[in-house]
Amino acid sequence: MTDTADDRLVAELLELALEAAHRAGDFLHHSRPADLGVAATKSSAVDVVTEMDIASEKLITGLLADRRPDDGVLGEEGASVAGTSGVQWVIDPIDGTVNYLYGLPSWAVSIAARKDGETLVGVVHAPVRGETYRAALGGGTFVNDRPARVRPAPAFGLALVGTGFGYLAERRARQAEVLRELVPEVRDIRRGGSAAIDLCDVATGRLDAYYERGLNHWDYAAGDLIAREAGALTGGRPGEPLSPELTVAAPPGLFEALQARLDGARCSPTSRPGGPPPTSAGCGWRG
Ligand code: IPD
């Protein structure tokens, strides 16, 4: 590969993302207060922010501002800088906040860098797992220093599928309806509690597929690139790119089938007394 200015930029961004994710991860892992509580709530009473989410975001944005002061920043806990360099950092200071709050192991620091809307690097650092997932555009995915690859697509009925639920009760009810249809049609379902780790689990073959409605950019920006660079396809509804509306990730062959199945999901009125009738649009996409 020739050493172009673009290559050098990608290498610099990746190194900085790794440093920031490790510093924040070490801090979160080793300084978690025994009496950690909720500092604030966001979209609902169960959408929580801890003092550690806020401190982790400050640590990451401070480091980035010090090293690359002209870059833009978008962070889950409110960091928002327009920037002038064309590079934007997308940060989830703790993905899997509820797991972290409860002392469950599945949480991560997720950092991506985009330029002109294209994700160039993604890092997901999961300290309790002892694993760091990283990808640079066109450079493949690595878990620690080992190359990662998706599992070949199984038949739909043999797929182990990860998913998650939003924080709003209405949305959860619809997500449960879609899941009710899917459960008997696949091997099984997993709900890990960190979308970033779920996407990395597709990248490393620990899940066959993952989908979720209603994620935010910071939940999926790094994991999306990590999954794609490991051979997954990612997207939203059929023919549409991945977006906060829908995130689907799976190897070719399974990806299209899952997208189509989700798009066709109808909420049976008998399963939810008083609920809305089924629509051809599929109940997963309302609300
Ligand atoms: C959440 C996690 C969870 C997913 C939620 C996300 P947070 O992010 O990724 O797995 O199901 O939709 O909001 O709040 O822990 O950063």
Summarize the structure in short.
The protein is an alpha+beta fold and 287 residues long. 33% of the residues lie in helices and 25% in strands. α1 runs antiparallel to α2 and α5 (195-203) runs parallel beside α6 (217-229).
Any key phrases for this structure?
alpha+beta; Fructose-1,6-Bisphosphatase, Chain A, domain 1; binds D-MYO-inositol-1-phosphate; 25% strand; 5-stranded mixed sheet; 2 domains; D-Maltodextrin-Binding Protein, domain 2
What can you see in these coordinates?
This protein has 287 residues and is α+β, with helices and mostly antiparallel strands. It has two domains: 5-147, Fructose-1,6-Bisphosphatase, subunit A, domain 1 (Fructose-1,6-Bisphosphatase, Chain A, domain 1); 156-263, D-Maltodextrin-Binding Protein, domain 2 (3-Layer(aba) Sandwich), CATH 3.40.190.80. Helix content is 33%, strand content 25%. It has helices at residues 5-30, 51-67, 97-102, 169-182, 195-203, 217-229, 254-263, and strands at 38-41, 48-50, 72-75, 80-81, 87-95, 108-115, 118-126, 131-136, 141-143, 146-148, 160-163, 188-190, 209-213, 233-235, 246-250. The strands form three sheets. An eight-stranded mixed sheet has the order 4-3-5-6-7-8-9-10, sandwiched between helices. A hairpin with a 6-residue loop joins strand 1 (38-41) and strand 2 (48-50). Helix 1 packs antiparallel against helix 2 and helix 5 (195-203) runs parallel beside helix 6. It is globular. The termini are far apart. Mean pLDDT is 92; it is low at 269-273. The protein binds D-MYO-inositol-1-phosphate. Residues 76, 92, 95-97, 164-166, 193-195, 212, 215, 219 line the site of D-MYO-inositol-1-phosphate (IPD). D-MYO-inositol-1-phosphate binds at residues 76, 92, 95-97, 164-166, 193-195, 212, 215, 219.
